Amino acid sequence: MERDPSLDALLGLDGQVFVIDANTGHWVRFVVRRVPETAAKPHGLDYSLTLHGADGERLVGFDNAHQVRSGTGPGGRAGGAFDHKHRLRTIRPYDYRDAATLLEDFWSEVDRVLREQGVIR
């Protein structure tokens, strides 16, 4: 597997918390650690990138803490990898490609939710 040049930047965010808007109290948190490569975490990362509202509620999250079902209802089944995204109250599988794409996808979703909530224009 080729070295992901953006991996160092992602790993450097581990433990960081940033206030997105002091007036509304929105903030983001990054937890990113190297772990042994497994079938569930083939990229060798344990990660959680989250956007929270002032009350602490998670509004957006990209993580690989647990498996998610693909599909809904009785036909939905658990997938192999644990990568997924939370958006408000929904959970969907996420196709992890590399660290740069993860960061881009996360910030795009944060921007979309903040626009929907009128926090930014």
Strands, count: 8
Series of secondary-structure elements, N-terminal to C-terminal: HEEEEEEEEH
Strand order of the largest sheet: 1-2-3-4-7-8
Mean pLDDT across all residues, rounded?
Answer: 89
Number of domains: 1
Number of helices: 2
* Radius of gyration, taken over Cα atoms and rounded to an integer in Å: 15 Å
What characteristic shape results from the CA principal axes?
globular
The percent of residues in helical segments reads 10-25%
Biggest sheet overview: 6 strands, antiparallel
Global structural class? alpha+beta
Strand content: 25-35%
Parts with pLDDT < 50 across at least 5 consecutive residues: none
Oligomeric state of shown chains = single chain
Distance between the termini: 40 Å
